[in-house]
Amino acid sequence: MASLLVLNGPNLNLLGQRQPEVYGHTTLAEIEETCRQVADELGARVDCVQSNHEGVLIDAIHAARGLHDGIILNAGAYTHTSIALMDAISSAEIPVVEVHLSNIHAREPFRNKSYIASVAVGQICGFGPDSYPLAIRAMLGHLKVLQENQDVA
């Protein structure tokens, strides 16, 4: 059974209250429950972590080694600023799908740059809360291909 870490960064604990015109009315708890349900339907397991602190997110990425097969990461504003998160992902050697509720490429210019994208297997953005189930499906598909390639080798 594949194990995924759904990791959420700063201010995502305020989903449903914070800028609903941008992020919608769905709470983080609702998103996490949806992630668990979708993973369960697909025969996977999901653990969820949220922190407003960059170091805690880095620690969670490091701790995922040997525990999780993939990470679904919404780094929030750290997406656009954190070389440290980028380095943690590179060092952990665990596939990451970057996820965002809003389309970061259609927003303010400073949000167009993602340090995470260069080390992620893919990026899903702009589909609101549906971005998370899409990311889970994408990650599980990616892990299946990795497993098939290992079986052939």
Structural commentary:
The longest helix has 22 residues, at 131-152. Strands 2-1-3-4-5 form a five-stranded parallel β-sheet, with helices on both faces. With 153 residues, it is α/β, with parallel strands linked by helices. The two termini are 21 Å apart. Helices cover 39% and strands 18% of the residues. It has helices spanning 20-23, 28-41, 54-63, 83-92, 131-152, and strands at 2-8, 44-50, 70-74, 96-100, 122-125. The radius of gyration is 15 Å and the shape is globular. The protein has a single domain, classed as Rossmann fold (3-Layer(aba) Sandwich), CATH 3.40.50. It has five helices and five strands.
Specify the helix fraction band.
Answer: 25-40%
**Count of the separate structural domains:** 1
Order of helices and strands: EHHEHEHEEH
For the largest beta sheet, what order do the strands appear in spatially?
2-1-3-4-5
CATH A-level architecture = 3-Layer(aba) Sandwich
Count the beta strands: 5
Regions with pLDDT < 50 over 5+ consecutive residues?
A: none
Provide the CATH topology.
Answer: Rossmann fold
Radius of gyration in whole Å, from Cα? 15 Å
Task: Please report the first level of CATH classification, the CATH class.
Answer: Alpha Beta
Mean pLDDT across all amino acids: 95
Distance between the termini: 21 Å
Largest sheet: 5 strands, parallel
**Distinct helical segment count:** 5
Globular, elongated, flat, extended or rod-shaped: what is the shape?
Answer: globular
